[in-house]
Design goal:
Elements: E1 19-23, H1 27-32, H2 38-58, E2 63-70, H3 78-101, E3 104-109, H4 117-130, E4 136-144, H5 146-160, H6 173-176, E5 190-193, E6 212-215, H7 225-236, H8 246-254
Helix pairs in contact: 2-3, 3-4
Bound molecules: 3-methylbut-3-enyl trihydrogen diphosphate (2 copies) and magnesium ion.
């Protein structure tokens, strides 16, 4: 199913966000503060992923999307990149059974063609094995970039509908949307970035158009249920207007 843009209607921001998207940042600084190698921060970050997944399931979040490796992270030292790949493989091998038991559907989005064949196979198997789960969809963005996503969607749309190549002015947002990597999910309601930086770093550029943004100084390995609740509390205090006035929003919310 392709979701229509969440900006078309006014979702109920008073409740729990339906889709939470997180940039898990600060692993290296968490480790450096403890005089440990950066990779120790990444290992500890896996525990935070586990805790956050469980906390989201417990709170009724339907979609959790985690930025694990950006298209720019290849610029890091080779040994850090290969450790991150090994960690990814380990998590997929160890956690998929638990995901099955917990009703979690796993999706991996990004340019997986750059990964070694064994990892690609593991990704495919993990997705297949959890495909029929419905409690929460956990999406891992790996070798993902927002610009890559818009480009790959444009190419896929033109491959599928070549007639659009000669009718550029007629192309609408809803023509492109089904080809975006996250077309299976509604747009994120809440974006969280840990680690103190206040930037998007080429995460979901198209999909974050009207997402509520939340930044915390907490490093990712320290993130979990407590920090998540702080973010939700901030989210619940927001008024999502999507271009409308406050009075219009109040009227719609008051309507039966
Ligand atoms: C996020 O933590 C993990 C990845 C990008 C894979 P960092 O490794 O970016 O940690 P800092 O920002 O250097 O502290
Ligand atoms: C963003 O973190 C990517 C992930 C968390 C996977 P970075 O730490 O790589 O971001 P920049 O480069 O500092 O913006
Ligand atoms: Mg970082």
């Amino acid at each position: 199913m392709t979701h229509t843009s969440s900006t078309d209607t006014i979702p109920d921001a008073a409740g729990t966000p339906q889709h939470v998207a997180i940039i898990m940042d600060g692993n290296g600084r968490w480790a450096a503060a403890r005089h440990m190698p950066r990779v120790a921060g990444h290992s500890k970050g896996v525990d935070a992923v586990r805790a956050t997944v469980q906390a989201c399931v417990d709170r009724g979040v339907e979609y959790l999307t985690l930025f694990a490796f950006s298209s720019e992270n290849w610029r890091r030292p080779a040994d850090e990149v290969s450790l991150l790949m090994r960690l990814f493989i380990m998590v997929l091998e160890r956690e998929v059974n638990q995901m099955r038991a917990n009703g979690i559907r796993l999706r991996v989005v990004g340019d997986v063609s750059a990964f070694e064949p064994a990892l690609r196979k593991l990704i495919e198997q993990s997705q297949d094995r959890t495909a029929n789960n419905h409690k929460m969809t956990l999406t891992i963005c790996a070798n993902y970039g927002g610009r890559w996503d818009v480009l790959q969607a444009t190419r896929a749309m033109l491959d599928a509908r070549p007639e659009l190549a000669c009718a550029g002015a007629a192309i609408s947002e809803s023509d492109l949307a089904p080809y975006l990597a996250m077309s299976f999910a509604p747009e994120p309601d809440l974006f969280i970035r840990t680690g103190g930086e206040q930037r998007i770093s080429n995460f979901l550029l198209w999909q974050l158009a009207y997402t509520e943004l939340y930044f915390t100084d907490a490093f990712w390995p320290d993130f979990g249920a407590v920090e998540l609740d702080r973010a939700f509390e901030s989210y619940r205090a927001r008024e999502r207007r999507f271009g409308r006035t406050s009075a219009q929003v109040a009227m719609q919310t008051a309507a039966p």
